[in-house]
């Protein structure tokens, strides 16, 4: 004798994951609890850092204390868009110049690096041609390129942009190539069965599968570019946060130097968080069995 259960009865049967078993406010409460915990642990980390800083400044009087530095930071932020003569520029104007160079060089690296990465990731022949050149140029210090670009363009800001371009190019190209070379065989076979042309394969298979790796490369490139611009501007002079740090150091104003370091770190944190969010948006969805 077989037992037949109506479909309506199955649908009406309560499950362990039903709304009745899980309070409606629990996900929100859990998220708020995790956020509060993260904020609290982060505050502990900053408190430890501030304590170490205070100890160093106490043992080395030339290093400004946290209180003196925060006072100087407040003064810097009171008139950030000051545009005086010569080097008398507000901190926002200095940052604007640096960010313009970084995003220009970074954009050039994306335009060149993503197609290059897709090509060498999808073609073994292209990889064999490009890989030796990439491995030769990739380890070269970014600062070593600055005199070459400066000789070519005779313009320090433009040379700085090209240094950023060459620095940001390799992480974009290499990570894109890694994503393009890891397309599953099943997807390639399906594209072959449906007789995808190169454009359709690129659009529907290669680029979607490579997107998480591309965004990872963009994230790495932006972090490196933001670090490199400070060192390049110390050599180049003119406007920029790196030039500001060097000028304040020569003026023996270490409080402004430390303020600039904190601002650089904050902007880097925001940029990294933006690319991290983008990476989560394009990551491959897991197939649930």
3D structure, described in words:
It contains eleven helices and no strands. It folds into two domains: 26-63; 75-282, MetI-like (MetI-like fold, Orthogonal Bundle). Residues 1-22 and 285-289 have low confidence and may be disordered. Helix 3 crosses helix 11, helix 4 runs parallel beside helix 7 (156-181) and helix 9 packs antiparallel against helix 11 (254-282). With 289 residues, it is mainly alpha-helical.
Decide which structural class fits the backbone: mainly alpha
Label the CATH architecture of the largest domain. Answer: Orthogonal Bundle
Name the CATH class of the largest domain. Answer: Mainly Alpha
Distance between the termini: 32 Å
Helical content class: over 70%
Mean pLDDT: 84
Name given to the CATH homologous superfamily of the largest domain: MetI-like
> How many individual domains?
2
As for the CATH topology of the largest domain, it is MetI-like fold
Shape: globular
User: Low-confidence runs (pLDDT<50, min 5 residues)?
Assistant: 1-22, 285-289
Strand content: under 5%
Quaternary organization: single chain
Number of helices: 11
Give the SSE string.
HHHHHHHHHHH
């Amino acid at each position: 004798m077989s037992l037949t259960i109506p479909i309506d009865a199955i649908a009406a049967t309560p499950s362990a994951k039903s709304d009745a078993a899980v309070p409606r406010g629990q996900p929100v409460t859990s998220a708020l609890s995790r956020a509060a915990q993260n904020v609290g642990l982060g505050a502990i980390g900053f408190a430890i850092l501030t304590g170490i800083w205070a100890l160093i400044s106490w043992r080395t009087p030339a290093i400004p204390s946290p209180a003196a530095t925060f006072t100087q930071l407040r003064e810097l932020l009171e008139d950030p868009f000051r545009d005086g003569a010569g080097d008398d520029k507000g901190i926002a104007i200095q940052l604007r110049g640096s960010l313009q160079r970084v995003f220009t060089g970074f954009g050039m690296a994306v335009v060149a690096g993503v197609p290059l990465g897709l090509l060498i990731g999808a073609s073994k022949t292209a990889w064999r041609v490009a890989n030796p050149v990439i491995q030769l140029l990739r380890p070269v210090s970014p600062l070593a390129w600055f005199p070459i670009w400066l000789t070519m363009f005779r313009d320090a800001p433009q040379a700085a942009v090209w240094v950023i371009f060459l620095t940001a190019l390799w992480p974009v190209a290499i990570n894109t190539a890694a994503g393009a070379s890891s397309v599953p065989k099943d997807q390639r076979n399906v594209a072959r069965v449906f007789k995808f042309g190169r454009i359709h394969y690129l659009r529907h298979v290669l680029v979607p599968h490579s997107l998480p790796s591309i965004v990872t490369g963009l994230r790495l490139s932006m972090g490196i570019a933001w670090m490199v611009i400070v060192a390049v501007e110390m050599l180049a002079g003119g406007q920029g946060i790196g030039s500001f740090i060097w000028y304040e150091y020569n003026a023996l104003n270490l409080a402004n130097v430390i303020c600039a370091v904190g601002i650089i770190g904050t902007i880097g944190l925001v940029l990294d968080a933006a690319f991290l969010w983008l990476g989560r948006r394009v990551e491959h969805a897991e197939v649930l069995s």
